[in-house]
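User: Just a sanity check before I run the rest of the batch. Below are the structure tokens for the first item. I only need the designed sequence back.
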């Protein structure tokens, strides 16, 4: 029997340097490969995490890439020195985007003022380096849009990663020509139904998929791993759900999202 090769997919956001992958990373990468996940963009959430992401990318530079950023949870760490360090790290060929960066008023682990300052600082860095920006937003849509409206004209590109917002918020993001990253949130029957209904409105050229592993294990996955850890090999489940909601085949969605991600991150 001949089985079809899996569709090629790019995981645009995952946390491979997370401690939960420390004991079996080679196996995780092998399973991702077998599942058709050809490239992975490892999210840089702090200076230290960015360094680790770059180091990991070196082990397989054709498949692993990194972003250089500071998650809004860590915004209080932002300083001119941090910006200089991130600027230096962003010059590494492994780094394909600035971020993640943005605003998270859901958790407010850093005060809002600090989040706003860090977000502006990272956007300035994106403008300066000409790299696209990897954006995080939760419960902060109005402030997020206000700042992005200021910067969008000078930014080369941007993606609203792990988009979970409303239809109006989606329209706002698309009106600024932002790309949209969809995670396994869409596989959650309790809180992802609205995403199923609106994902068809995202132009194929601006739609990308991500696992956010080890977080956000798709609830539709069968069987589900007992440790509930998400991993890049589960990206096809996200892609399958998105494709179905758009009335497309998995092959179509895989081809368009892979092309969109290659173009966005300039993977060549
Ligand atoms: Zn995020």
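Assistant: Here's the designed sequence for the first item:
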């Amino acid at each position: 029997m001949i089985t079809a090769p899996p569709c090629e997919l790019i995981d645009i956001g995952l946390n491979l340097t997370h401690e939960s992958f420390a004991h079996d990373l080679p196996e995780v990468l092998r399973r991702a490969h077998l599942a058709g996940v050809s490239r992975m963009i490892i999210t840089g959430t702090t200076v230290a995490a960015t360094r680790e992401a770059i180091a990991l990318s070196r082990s397989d530079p054709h498949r692993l890439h990194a972003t250089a950023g500071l998650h809004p949870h860590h915004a209080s760490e932002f300083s001119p020195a941090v910006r200089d360090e991130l600027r230096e790290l962003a010059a590494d060929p492994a780094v394909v985007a600035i971020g993640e960066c943005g605003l998270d008023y859901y958790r407010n682990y850093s005060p809002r003022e600090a989040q706003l300052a860090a977000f502006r600082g990272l956007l300035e860095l994106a403008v300066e380096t000409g790299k696209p920006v990897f954006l995080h937003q939760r419960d902060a849509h109005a402030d997020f849009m206000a700042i992005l409206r200021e910067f969008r004209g000078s930014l080369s590109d941007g993606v609203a990663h792990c988009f979970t917002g409303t239809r109006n918020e989606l329209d706002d993001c698309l009106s600024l020509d932002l790309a949209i990253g969809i995670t396994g949130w869409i596989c959650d029957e309790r809180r992802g139904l609205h995403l199923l209904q609106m994902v068809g409105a995202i132009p194929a050229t601006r739609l990308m998929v991500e696992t956010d592993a080890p977080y956000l294990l798709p609830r539709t996955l069968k069987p589900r791993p007992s440790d509930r850890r998400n991993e890049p090999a589960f990206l096809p489940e996200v892609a399958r759900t998105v494709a179905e909601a758009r009335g497309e085949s998995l092959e179509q969605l895989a081809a368009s999202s892979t092309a969109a991600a290659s173009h966005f991150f300039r993977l060549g």
